[in-house]
Design goal:
The protein is 50% helix and 16% strand. It contains eleven helices and twelve strands.
Length: 330
């Protein structure tokens, strides 16, 4: 055999050995990664940009820490990015996370993802916003219809049962905010016949604060006979508040918002916000992860877990700051 042929054979043999070792190491690394994920819970929010969801994250991570688990926190940047959230769920299943805790940003678009996760055999806990399937283990959220009804009663009382109201809504198919608007509308129609809802406007470009501010500004300029305003979540509430402020209409318009932020709390203190219907995002994240861990341990859980909301106004503002700083975003 010629020397150059022997050299070629030796090179090929060494290459084959190195390739085999590389494949083995890669498989071992992948297996190791999968094992690590067995102690991790995927917590997927509607949108990572939102301050409200960052409070959810704190609660989720505290619950996991208490029980010796990790949290894989990832999600779409904006709450309108449905396709991105679908991909994030698929990534969690591929990664091999032990359980899924999901705040679906679309009640219908995420159905397939949730059902696939459930079929994979892992616990599935839905938080914050409902989804149009029963194929999950538990649902932990605020009673949003009741929260909307509370907002209607506070605004109706502030208007003495008479006036014109607009509703600033979030993105379409967000079940939680749609339910708040529904509870508000039904209660106004039933209990305050002297109040008319003259406009309901969804956000169409992501539902951020600036979009809500501009949308509210346009509505208020177009409808000069508005006496009251209800906004359905944190970004729409802050945006609506800023619009009323910029137009100098606090002496004319009674405002009730949903969720909390230091800007809105200052509004209560200054008499510019009638009331806020405040969820507890920390408790929602905390309960979602605790429930997932209970399922992993084969412990019974409730199908529906209501997380109480509260009404914050000038009378109880300081007390609530002391008792519930996390819920208020402080």
């Amino acid at each position: 055999m010629k020397k150059n042929n022997i050299a070629v054979i030796l090179i090929l043999a060494v290459s084959a050995v190195l390739f085999t070792l590389g494949v083995i190491k890669k498989i071992q690394h992948m297996a190791s990664g999968m094992n690590l994920q067995k102690n991790a819970i995927a917590v997927i929010p509607k949108g990572t940009d939102s301050q409200w969801w960052q409070v959810v994250r704190k609660g989720a991570e505290e619950a996991a820490k208490e029980e010796g688990y990790d949290v894989n926190w990832t999600g779409p940047k904006k709450e309108t990015e449905r396709d991105r959230q679908i991909q994030v769920v698929a990534d969690a299943l591929t990664r091999g996370d032990a359980a899924l805790v999901l705040g679906p940003n679309d009640a219908t678009a995420l159905v397939g993802s949730v059902e696939k996760a459930k079929a994979s055999g892992i616990p599935v806990v839905i938080i914050d916003s409902a989804i149009e399937t029963d194929n999950y283990d538990s649902f932990a959220a605020t009673d949003n219809i009741a929260g909307g009804a509370d907002a209607a009663r506070r605004l109706g009382k502030a208007l003495n049962g008479h006036g014109n109201v607009i509703v600033i809504r979030h993105v379409q198919n967000s079940a939680s905010t749609d339910e708040r608007a529904k509870g508000f509308r039904e209660t106004i129609e039933k209990e305050f016949p002297g109040i008319k809802i003259i406009e309901e406007q969804h956000m169409i470009r992501g539902g951020g604060i600036e979009e809500a501010r501009q949308t509210t500004t346009d509505l208020l300029i177009r409808s000069s006979d508005v006496n009251g305003l209800f906004a359905v979540n944190m970004p729409t509430s802050i945006g609506a508040y800023k619009a009323i402020e910029s137009l100098k209409l606090f002496d004319k318009i009674k405002f009730v918002g949903f969720d909390s932020d230091p800007v809105l709390l200052d509004g209560i203190k200054n008499g510019n916000v009638e009331a806020l219907i405040v969820q507890d995002p920390y408790q929602i994240g905390y309960t979602g992860v605790k429930t997932a861990i209970s399922l992993l341990r084969k412990q019974p859980v409730e199908k529906i877990i209501p997380i109480p909301s509260m009404i914050v106004d000038k009378n109880n503002l300081e007390e609530q700051k002391q008792k519930n700083p996390a819920a208020l975003g402080l």
